[in-house]
């Protein structure tokens, strides 16, 4: 029986239980695509920006972040481990590498210029957390950063903020972050009483076209609904029920999912399409 889950595991399971089985239970690893390499680069750049905020001038932060992003993408390319689902020629691969580098640099600089100034200036980056939910499981994750008031920042790379705030409130992973942050706050400040996970979380999104941030406040009801959804995932895992994502899901395709070629459900979708 599995009693511990990381946020990365939950993220996979919420999208596709079969992908969760391949990646986290069978331990299969798939090389990143160019888009995923770019995402890794931007995340490294954003992490560096969080480390420097309030300690350096904006111009220096931007250059440091862009350099960190560039180095990360170069490391991924140097590994020679890039997955090409489209079967590109050598010239096309070179062009795609160059495009990935430009996309990564632009997204990182946009974040520093247009989102970072609106975030708190007293940040602790890469704050890990662990949360035990009695009767369910123990969860662990990491905030991109957290401010002095224990408001966490979640960062999504190449992930647009929905126009409807209600959709954000239904995001179980953001709700779990908010719940974990409130737990930390009460532990650190020695507050008594029942944990009420109704604090604010800041969601920062980054892409090569725009960046944005949103403040989201989760009520107790929002947290309860999120935990209900997570509970269904935990139960499915422990029952060995690894159903695929819906056949029309954007996650079920050869470009996004590296297990698509070996997955019987992926084969099914190919014949249906």
Order of helices and strands: EHHHHHEEEHHEEHH
Oligomer: single chain
Strand content: 15-25%
Largest sheet: 6 strands, mixed
Q: How would you portray this structure in words?
A:
The protein is α/β, with parallel strands linked by helices and 273 residues long. Helix content is 49%, strand content 16%. It has helices at 7-15, 17-25, 34-52, 58-78, 90-114, 165-169, 172-189, 220-239, 264-272; strands at 4-6, 123-133, 137-147, 152-157, 200-206, 211-217. Strands 1, 2, 3, 4, 5 and 6 form a 6-stranded mixed beta sheet that branches. Strand 2 (123-133) and strand 3 (137-147) form a beta hairpin. The longest helix is centred in the middle third of the chain and has 25 residues, at 90-114. The radius of gyration is 20 Å and the shape is globular.
Tags for this entry?
6-stranded mixed β-sheet; 273 residues; 9 helices; Lambda Exonuclease, Chain A; alpha/beta
Please provide a brief summary of the model.
The chain has nine helices and six strands; from the N terminus they run βαααααβββααββαα.
Set down the secondary structure blueprint:
Blueprint: E1 4-6, H1 7-15, H2 17-25, H3 34-52, H4 58-78, H5 90-114, E2 123-133, E3 137-147, E4 152-157, H6 165-169, H7 172-189, E5 200-206, E6 211-217, H8 220-239, H9 264-272
Parallel strand pairs: 1-3, 4-5
Antiparallel strand pairs: 2-3, 3-4, 5-6
Helix pairs in contact: 1-2, 3-4, 3-5, 4-5, 7-8
